[in-house]
């Protein structure tokens, strides 16, 4: 029962991660809304454009990526807002555990309950754009590397706008420009796979953005939270 | 060098208003500090300043002789702060909330002890319901249940007696006395005097 090995930093991080996942499970309406948004936005394009397979294949990767970007922004606003409103954010700032690690745990939970779901449904959506199996696989993989990065960049924006009125719009204005490189290389990977060129360069660049993002974004978000709560 | 908490020449400016200045307090172990003042006098700001959430406009907070920003980690290990909001997640039960709060504070969160603490707080039978179904007083109790667990030296409580009934009031007074008797410190804001037994030193700071 009382395993002391679970104390300290790993225990606290696990507790925060599990808490946020548990809340996401109990508030399925909130968790699902970003996913439903993603599916609907992506599905509107083939309906609007009509059955022109050549055109759909050309625009498919870009549309899925843009919709993923917007859907993850939609979910991002709540990352710290609820914690701020109920006072648990203050408790995280007062924990002996470094705040940047707690932010990383929260962002991970957030990605698992939003970004990962987008990744999992993306192959189905690729069918609507007549993308082949290989292109759909590359799309799924590019989202798997890209959406954590969107969550990390979004966490900085969410921390900067916590407690502000109209935070949602401001968050999008702050974060969307920063996400454009992810969008370009993510959608670019699929396009170059469809053109028969290699995807290594695009994936390397996405990975090269993700690694420093994992390290730096939580530190920046933690600093922003300390300022926001003054 | 002191073993407790020391506020030196603290001043607070919010917006363009100066809320208070030249606040000097030395709180040795085993003593209680009650902060009083009119609404808007800066009681909550003072508490947030002394736990390091708010940078003082002037002056310093010292914990065991060390100025605060530098001693933050050691200080937060010894601190429990309960603010206006009860810091409960509405979708989680009081038990789940308590366990996460303990883990965040670096305290072992085994279930029997947590259940016992909730029962002492008068929440027997409500341990597993979502916190959103609790009344205001029950939410307070659920937040306060954390106090006796762990060994924090300093408790900082913002209006802890709000929304508590007579039974819970007596329970909280008992907790505070036990904390002071084992050499801990308590800082709280309250408009009413805290009815502690004789022999307990109580300082009052009027803002």
Key terms:
A: 230 residues; mainly alpha; disordered N terminus; B: 207 residues; alpha/beta; Rossmann fold; five-stranded parallel sheet; globular
Write the layout of secondary structure elements.
The complex is a heterodimer of chains A (230) and B (207).
Chain A: H1 8-26, H2 28-49, H3 53-76, H4 78-86, H5 88-93, H6 99-113, H7 115-128, H8 133-160, H9 167-194, H10 200-228
Helix pairs in contact in A: 1-6, 2-3, 2-7, 3-7, 3-8, 3-9, 6-8, 6-10, 7-8, 8-9, 8-10, 9-10
Chain B: E1 5-14, E2 17-27, E3 32-36, H1 43-50, E4 58-63, E5 66-67, H2 72-77, E6 79-82, H3 94-104, H4 111-120, H5 136-144, E7 154-158, H6 166-181, E8 185-189, E9 202-206
Parallel strand pairs in B: 3-8, 3-9, 6-7, 7-8
Antiparallel strand pairs in B: 1-2, 1-4, 4-5
Helix pairs in contact in B: 3-4
3D structure, described in words:
The complex is a heterodimer of chains A (230) and B (207). Chain A has one domain (4-228). Helices cover 84% and strands 0% of the residues of chain A. Chain A is built from 10 helices and no strands. Chain A has helices at residues 8-26, 28-49, 53-76, 78-86, 88-93, 99-113, 115-128, 133-160, 167-194, 200-228. The longest helix of chain A has 29 residues, at 200-228. Chain B is of the alpha/beta class and 207 residues long. Chain B has a domain at 1-78 and 185-207: Rossmann fold (3-Layer(aba) Sandwich), CATH 3.40.50.300. Chain B has 6 helices and 9 strands; from the N terminus they run βββαββαβαααβαββ. Chain B is globular. In chain B, 43% of the residues are buried. The chains are: A mainly alpha (230), B alpha/beta (207). At the A-B interface, helix 1 and helix 5 of A face helix 2, helix 3 and helix 4 of B.
